[in-house]
Amino acid sequence: MATVRTYYDPSIEYTLMRGDSGHRFRKIVKISGVLSIFMVISVLIALLFYGAKPTSSSSDKDFEWIRQRLGTKTPYPHEDRPEGPLKDTPKGYELVQLHLINRHGTRYPDPDDYVSFKDLWDKLSDTTVPGFEWIKTWSIEKFYPAAKSNLLASSGDADLYEIGRRFSRRYKDFLDRYPYDPYNFEFRSSVKPRSSQSAYAFALALFEDRPPGGDNGDDADDDDKGHHRSTKEKRLTLPPSQPIAIYTVPAGIDQQMKLKSSCPKWLDEVSGQDIVYKQKRLYESKFAPQLAKSLSATFGINISAEDASTIYRLCGFEVSIYDEASTWCQMLLPLGTDKTSKEGSHAGDEERYINFLNFEIATDLEKYYINGPGVPFNREMGCKLGSSLVQTIDLVLSDSTDKPRLPEDDEGGANIPHHGHFKFGHSETIIFFSTFLNLYNQSGAILTGNLTAEQYEKREFRSSLISPFSANMAFEVYKPKTMQSKTGSPHGLVRLLVNEKPHLIPGCGSSMFCDWSLFKDILIQRGTGCDFEACCSTSKSTFTVASNVTCPSTTPIVT
């Protein structure tokens, strides 16, 4: 029987539920009373959609297993992220800069998926198969309205808000030391609304208890705090939460967040070439036709291999947006079993979840060649983010505390070291930059469509882990507390966090804290001095490749 989706009236305090062995990550969330009404409503609705729903009628085991293997439609794993303040700062150092590269939160399907989902629903709407009667009352426009295509879902607002809350607690001392202003913190997003809205949700939580100080100063009377001092009798009330400036760049020239739109060569010679999808199609040919045949027999209609893939994608949105695995996801589990049992009647997980395993591998094969190490040119796509790291980290580590801070003297602060760089983009942003850093290609093993089950199990490249919704990469930059010599390269340490957990930087050895001089060399060797414009040019472009620029090949490493 279908789960009834009940919507509740917003309240100030309630339980946020998601994941964690059927208890759905219980955690009390209290919204600050200082938030403005529209902020309160926005965040509360987001959090309610995020988890305040009845438990799925599918088993807890099924739900937890499925939700971790949905490729780039996997929900963010909030339930086991580090909590609390930063406690492991290296002795003799202080945190002086924080970088965050974040994929947008959970979104609604794009227009192509909307059409595919509607066609599938229309095809199955008259089914009488026991256990799937819910399809008759299910509605594409109710749960995935066309008007919301590609927009951030309420659960996406909650994703970034919750991540921002953890950052606020983790970096409390850092935020106390460096209060917000646009010369201290850069917020940047792609031009897409789902990315800028994600930046806003994150910032709302990051500065939730830090309203703007106004012009009163620390010694202002209590009655004056929270107001703008004026010579007139009327005092203006300050915003209840810190407003931020969000910087965006048009899609066609955004070389950091919306990368593919800025690279004609990638669009023509990588994304636009059938050979890039060869390995995915090879793998799908081994299981999708048989699955389609089985589904056709069960439902008594013609279901194609493409329809089966559509079911997997729709399952991903059901889980990520609605925490729901008892609807479309059930079509990919063995039919005719007790869907509410903990174990089912199968020998093991591999047999019960084989369709999810297969579709996850197929997704990995697509992303491996489209955005990952399967095409050498993809490494070039992340080089501008690498260049930005070198420039901004060098700047903050070279900064002298006794140097006056005069933004008006350097074209609006462009050469002033920001202490925070928060950038919000897309799945492609995360995977391209991970490829640039070589994070998931350490063994050098090539992912193809004809490996053994054991080889697939050992694969490094897993899109469900690399780029779920709200995936993020953060760099903590630490500077010695003692004054450095003004000659030579600046000294410092850098730590990488992937989805909020420490991650070794390839080439930095076994220490999570990498010496900046070593990491800088790694970035330079991997092409930090890249010529993005030249390498992305085509015969139709105005850019020409200089004789000293070597651009990686756009041919897949396996053809």
Q: What would your notes on this structure say?
A:
This protein is of the alpha/beta class. 35% of the residues lie in helices and 10% in strands. The chain contains 20 helices and 12 strands. A hairpin with a 2-residue loop joins β10 and β11 (501-503). The longest helix is centred in the middle third of the chain and has 18 residues, at 305-322. The radius of gyration is 25 Å and the shape is globular. It starts with 12 loop residues before the first strand and ends in a 24-residue tail after the last helix.
Brief sketch in words of this structure:
The chain has 559 residues and is α/β, with parallel strands linked by helices.
Q: Would you give the CATH topology? A: Rossmann fold
Major sheet: size, sense and barrel closure? 8 strands, mixed
* Tally of separate domains: 1
How many β-strand stretches?
A: 12
Helicity, as a percent range? 25-40%
Radius of gyration: 25 Å
Question: How would you describe this structure in keywords?
Answer:
559 residues; alpha/beta; Rossmann fold; two-stranded antiparallel sheet; 35% helix; globular; disordered N terminus
Topology diagram in text:
Blueprint: E1 13-16, E2 27-30, H1 37-51, H2 60-66, E3 93-103, H3 111-124, H4 140-143, H5 154-170, H6 172-177, E4 185-189, H7 193-206, E5 227-228, E6 236-237, E7 246-248, H8 264-271, H9 278-284, H10 288-299, H11 305-322, H12 349-352, H13 354-370, H14 377-380, H15 383-398, E8 420-425, H16 427-437, H17 453-457, H18 463-466, E9 472-480, E10 493-498, E11 501-503, E12 513-515, H19 516-525, H20 532-535
Parallel strand pairs: 3-8, 4-7, 4-8
Antiparallel strand pairs: 1-2, 3-9, 5-6, 9-10, 10-11, 10-12
